[in-house]
Amino acid sequence: MSQNFDVVVVGAGIVGAACALECAQAGLKVAMIEQGIVGGGATAAGMGHIVAMDDSDAQFALTRYSQLLWLGIKKELPKDVEFETTGTIWVAADEEEMGEVRRKHSYYSSRRAPCEILDSNSLEEAEPNLRKGLAGGFLVSEDAVLYPPTAARWLSAQAQSCGAALMQRQVTATTPAGVDFSDGGTVSAGLTIIATGAWAPELASDLEVKKRKGHLAITDRYPGFIHHQLVELGYLKSAHSITSDSAAFNVQPRATGQILIGSSRQYGAEDNGIDHRMMRSMLARACEYMPGLAATAVVRCWTGFRAATPDKLPLIGPSTKKRNLWFATGHEGLGITTSLGTAKLLVDQIVGRTPAIPFEPYLPSRHLREHVYA
Amino acid sequence: MVGGGPAGMAAAISAAESSSSVLLVDDNPALGGQIWRGEEANPSLRAARRWNERVKRSAIQVLRGLRIFDQPRPGVLLAESSDAMREIVYSRLILCTGARERFLPFPGWSLPNVMGAGGLQALVKSGVPISDKKVVVAGTGPLLLPVAAYLKRHGAKVQLIAEQASRAAIARFGKALARHPGKLAQALGIFGTLAGIPYRLGCWPVEAKGDDRLRSVALQQGTKKCEVECDYLACGFHLVPNIELAMLIGCKSRNGGVLVNEVQQTSVPNIYCAGEPTGIGGVDLAIAEGQIAGFAATGQKQKADRMLRASARHRQFATVLDSTFALRPELKKLSRENTLVCRCEDVRFDHLAQCRSWREAKLYTRCGMGPCQGRICGPATEFLFGWGADSVRPPVFEARVESLMATEVSAPAVRV
Amino acid sequence: MPDALAISLNGKSLSVRPETTVAAAVYIGGESSFHRSVSGEPRGPLCGMGICFECRVTVDGVRHVKSCQMLCKQGMQITTDV
To answer: Is A67 inside a domain boundary?
Structure first.
């Protein structure tokens, strides 16, 4: 059994669903292929934050662009997506980190992202449950949080209402003519987009994407305990680390009043079980910044696999090795944020539109092998 | 032993006949589990008194008010009380975690004063006043009549007992009871207490009505409907085994219960399981299995083998329970569109009906993601939609961040 | 062992027997709602054995206490979340 599509998107997580919607809105005949639950992979495991991040100019450009796209559609999002512009406060523990706050303020301001420097008093006022004695913080007011599984489902439903198909099948191989399924069937496609996150190398074995395991815990309801997404300035150090497992303070209020506690990063961990050592160090780090968390009750713990690339930028564009094969993967901890921007840039390339930001930094053809995996 | 009900106490006493050191842990303030709740302080049942006295006279170490939430590595359990965390180091473990009631949704079931049958009894045993209160007892299972009798003896005005099982099923159950003299005597005693109270078979609740709390219950029997004014509705639909800790530890399950061999050993060599978690079977079977597990886990093989015939006899009774109290299909149709199925997250029936699996329901509606971790809505959705449960992750009970961090233990680890 | 424990429920003084659970104290005090659900419904205990979490109240300032498994203590302050 075979059908003809202009585009097949393999993987209906938030990135795949966003790509399918953008393709459908551009008039392409598109099918999403998802072997499990739409939005049920890394999408479901992650923190659902929408953050402008400045690890590199290219990362900032993509995250800020995508953030503005989210803000543009937030009124259309249904209630169960729980989109909330909570803002992010990057917390500075000491004067050295306040230096970083000032650098960020200058960087973000010059790129017209609304932000503010908080001294220790205004930090305490903004977040009374942070420990005393912190130096201050950096508030990015247009950062937001949402609930990713329902966001992915909404994007997929929107795509389908624009004519996209959704198939629950497992893709075992891609060819220049389309994809093969595990049950022997095929689908013809003008081009195939791989949006399977950390599992992308299963369909493109030399792809420079590795699993980066993360742990999360969510508490019972404590409304008002925390108002903004909070993250320590050491977060980027954690995201940088090459070989060591790391935990950084990163907590988030959910619309339900529950507190979502992250974050951790590990390379080389292939099983999805809870690593007690990682969980403990993550919780301990969180309690260092918010001592009141120690007494809160944890309802659930879980893990997920980010898709990490050597230079911390996603792969958005055509394969250099195979005809008609495209990638929308490698988003590490920014898949939710950059899903919409990824979809735009990908379809810009496919149909030949002028992109809103340059897409060259994210092309699979950039020289990844020159980078050490970091 | 994890769990200080009949199985746990029997296992502890049996294990203590060896030279092993024995620890009995329970999450309630006193021993007894559900069926012997309150017996430790105020003994009224002969068997409960005997076992409680034996535990008191023994060298068994007892920790009450302590709930196990994780096994971070083999041989180590983490447990939490209201103000402390303890680490328990063991070489052999006997799981006696009992069972919980199955709840099925129907309109109004989330009103205050609608509780389980065992639930209301547990609350009354803990001090809830029931004298002169009107109670309807409904649902299904071996708990209904004993609960009604208990409530009546404590002054409740039991208006009606509604058992969804058919007359034929209950008649067969009665015949099976007759083959177990001890149970028959108990049943006759219960019937005596309940003389004069309507006992309707093939009858089930269709709506709990009220404003800020329950005021009346509507029931259906065949094509007949009736409404009964009451203060409390004690309604549960039989029991489901508590197997979450066993699953976390890696024990295999079968038919919703922990898989064990004839000496109660699970698929993990030094872990045993006794009582309701291996399959709902009642208190006599739980005690026998507890003894076998206690003997077997401490190398007292001959004593374990001597118990096998008794436990086989009690197990025959257990198989009758399942068939008697099977749920009728009408119970799947009780919910309206807006009837809540998951009470922790207020998830409606119609939103769940759109989902195709337990995991999908969790992700999209949050059903099962609340503090009860799916213990209430899981068995309901299994019956309503045929969904199976997920894998189990720690913590198996909600636990404080400080307990999960496990860096500061409030006391030295307990080692057995 | 004292004859009775003096506790407070939502600011009202109450006297209960020892070995009474906090959940029972709420009923003795004449209330049947313990907390509100996420959509605002009044709720009370369901399972009586520490599994359903519908019996949660605030005890001595600590939230989400399972009242069906906690014994009353002299001077305890219980507040329902309704």
So the answer is: no
Residues in A closer than 8 angstroms to C62, CB to CB, are: 295
**Interface contact C64-A220, CB threshold 8 A:** yes
**CA distance readout (Å), A23 to A6, A15, A161, A331, B153:** 9, 12, 12, 19, 71
* A111/A234 same-domain check: yes
B-contacting chains (≥3 CB pairs under 8 Å): A, C
User: Is A77 inside a domain boundary?
Assistant: no
Residues in A touching B392 (Cβ below 8 Å):
none
Identify the CA nearest to A293 among candidates B186, B68, B263, B400.
B400
Q: Yes or no: say if B90 and B416 are a contact pair by the CB < 8 Å rule.
A: yes
A256 neighbourhood in chain C, CB within 8 Å: 38
Q: Which of B369, B404, B408 to mutate to test the interface with A (most CBs of A within 10 A)?
A: B404
Which of A251, A281, A305 delimits the end of a domain? A305
- Picking from A271, A290, A305, the residue at the C-terminal end of a domain is A305
Domain residue ranges in chain C: 5-79
Reported CATH class of domain C5-79: alpha beta
Q: Could you tell me the CATH number of the domain that includes residue A297?
A: 3.30.9.10
Q: How far is B410 from chain A (nearest CA, A)?
A: 14
- Considering only CB atoms, which chain C residues are within 8 Å of B65? 69
Please indicate, yes or no, if residue A70 is contained in any of the structural domains: no
Chain B contact for A300 (CB, 8 A cutoff): yes
> Do A251 and A285 share a structural domain?
yes
Between C38, C62, C63, which is nearest A256 by CB? C38
Please give the model's pTM, rounded to 2 decimal places. Answer: 0.94
> Taking 70 as the threshold, does the pLDDT of residue A303 lie above it?
yes
Residues from chain A that touch C64, judged by Cβ atoms under 8 A, are 220-221, 297
Residue A243: per-residue pLDDT: 60
C64 contacts A297? CB cut-off 8 A: yes
Give pLDDT tens digits for A245-257.
889 999 999 998 9
What mean pLDDT is predicted for residues A11-34? 98
- pLDDT under 50 in chain B at which residues? none
Domain carrying residue A92: 85-142+211-305
Give the model's pLDDT for residue A76. Answer: 98
Domains held by chain A: number: 2
What pLDDT, on the 0 to 100 scale, is given for residue A258?
A: 96
> Measured between beta carbons, which residues in chain B are less than 8 angstroms from residue C23?
123, 126, 128
A59 within some domain: no
3-state secondary structure string across A135-152? CEEEEECCCEECCHHHHH
Task: State how far the Cα of B292 lies from the Cα of B294, in Å rounded to an integer.
Answer: 5
Alpha helices, DSSP H, located in A275-328: 276-289
Q: Does the beta-carbon distance from A300 to B393 stay under 8 Å?
A: yes
> Do A365 and A325 have their domain in common?
yes
Cα–Cα dist B279/B291, whole Å: 16
Residue B301 to chain C, least CA–CA distance (Å): 34
ipTM given for this complex: 0.97
Distance CA A12, CA A195 (A): 7
Predicted confidence band of residue A369 (pLDDT cuts 50, 70, 90): low
Are the beta carbons of B126 and C53 separated by less than 8 Å? Answer: no
Same domain, A224 and A109: yes
| B345 φ/ψ angles, rounded to the nearest 5 degrees | -115, 5
Cα of B67 vs its chain's centroid, Å: 16
Q: What is the mean pLDDT of residues A354-362?
A: 97
Judged by CB atoms closer than 8 Å, whether chains meet at A220 and C62 is answered as no
Whats the size of chain A, residue-wise?
A: 374
Q: Mark whether A296 and A357 lie in a shared domain.
A: no
